[in-house]
Amino acid sequence: MLSIGTLAKRTGTKVQTVRYYEQIGLMPEPGRTDGGQRRYGAAELDRLAFIRHSRDLGFPLEAIRELLDLSDSPEKSCAQIDAVAQRQLKAVEARIARLQSLKAELQRMISECHSDRVADCRILEVLRDHEECLSDHKGPDL
Amino acid sequence: MLSIGTLAKRTGTKVQTVRYYEQIGLMPEPGRTDGGQRRYGAAELDRLAFIRHSRDLGFPLEAIRELLDLSDSPEKSCAQIDAVAQRQLKAVEARIARLQSLKAELQRMISECHSDRVADCRILEVLRDHEECLSDHKGPDL
DNA sequence: GCTTGAACCTACAGTTGCTGTAGCTTCTAT
DNA sequence: ATAGAAGCTACAGCAACTGTAGGTTCAAGC
Q: HTH merR-type domain location, by residue (chains A, B) (predicted)?
């Protein structure tokens, strides 16, 4: 049996994060010692490792919840799992595209600034007026 | 003089967001009508446009605060402004690198899944075990 | 001048995914 | 037996907004 600290260390998680996952129902309520401390087994270790790895790959917690639910029905088709992964891939690709357009714009404004005084700094000029930009580079979240 | 709604519309901001910027001191407290409604002039319009455009380029609010402060000293050197932009560029590049490694991993696990049953879905297998991955793809925030 | 409805006001809760703190209790090693 | 590390709960805070409730004001049309 593992303490919460050991479980956290083994999975590269913080103790509070483990408790947070329990609070939002992503991790089950574990057994407790007589004194009230949490004790975990191998199944919980695996589940937490799954959660962490999915987070590292950028899956939102709600998607991870879906994946965990789906993996409880081993005989079903894995089409839904595929769909969740595809959705995540699309999200990642969209973010990359957005960031690349930001990168180009930032590089351009930095390279264009040959001034030395704030008064005619190209960076500020570009930030003041979106018309100075080549692309639209707007979007929801980064 | 512009109402908050007009100001928001002209800059592509939400009314609440404008009030939020005021609350955190990024926008100044504007004049008010006798009835207590906010009224804005051209300077505030420009300032908000600057903030929005900077946000669209991914600058955090604290960086924008720096830029606005710096632009109040037109005779100073623009080295600090350059530094803020460079910092943002580095942050964007780091994010792109991270996301590209996630993208590769996601593509790989999706393409490897030829199964039809959840029980032997490659996606779940990879998520269960980080050793299945090619790269480390870990990092702070996306 | 009056009415109506859109737009405004404040204040606060909720979002995502944690992280940090305070004040206390329990466990484990010596 | 005791000390200190690690655990417990509960709550506040981060970024950067967004949404809601319950009330007030503004501006246009008659």
A: 1-70
Domain that holds residue B99: 79-132
Chain B residues with CB under 8 Å of A130 CB are 49, 53, 56
A69 assigned to some structural domain: no
Picking from A76, A59, A11, the residue whose alpha carbon sits closest to that of residue B109 is A59
If asked whether residues B97 and B54 sit together in one domain, one would say: no
Asked whether residue A85 falls in the same domain as residue A118, the answer is yes
**Is A71 contained in some domain?**
no
Which helix (H) or strand (E) segment holds residue B56: the answer is: helix B42-56
CATH number at residue B52: 1.10.1660.10
pLDDT tens by residue, B41-98: 999 999 999 999 999 999 999 999 999 999 999 999 999 999 999 999 999 999 999 9
Tokens of B91: 């942050």
- The answer to whether A117 faces chain B, any CB pair under 8 Å, is yes
B15 CA to D25 C1' distance (Å): 17
Token pair of A5, please? 């600290």
Is the Cβ–Cβ distance between A35 and B115 less than 8 Å? Answer: no
Report d(CA B101, CA B97) in Å as an integer. 6
| B117–A contact, CB cutoff 8 A | yes
Nearest Cα residue to A124 out of B60, B51, B22, B18? B51
Residues pairing with A2 in the sheet: A40
Looking at this predicted complex, what is its ipTM? 0.89
The nucleotide closest to A63 (CA, C1' atoms): C16
Alpha helices (H) in chain A, listed in sequence order: 4-11, 15-23, 42-56, 61-70, 79-112, 122-128
Domain assignment of residue B70, yes or no = no
Give residue-wise pLDDT tens across range A114-141: 878 999 999 999 999 988 888 888 877 7
Residue A16 resides in a domain:
yes
